[in-house]
Amino acid sequence: MILLFEFGSPLYLTREVAFLRKRRTYLNSLVMNSIFMKLFLFPLGILLTLISIKYIPIFHQNPSFVYIVLIGSFFQGISPTWYYVGLEKMKKIGLSKIFFRTVGFIFIFVFVRTPEDSWIVLIGYSLTSFLICLYLFIEIFKEIKTIKLPNFNDIQKLFCKSVSSFFITFFPVFYQSLSIILLSLYVGPFQLGIFYGANRIYRAMNSLFSPMGQAFFPRIAYTSSNNLIKAKNLIKSAAALFLFFGTTLFILLLIFSSEIIFILLGEQFLESSKILILFGSVLPLTAISHVFGRQWMMAINQESDFSKVQFLSSSFSFLIFIYIIKDFTVMAIPISLIAYEISSIILMIFFCYYKK
Question: Are residues 103 and 187 in the same domain?
Answer without folding.
Answer: no
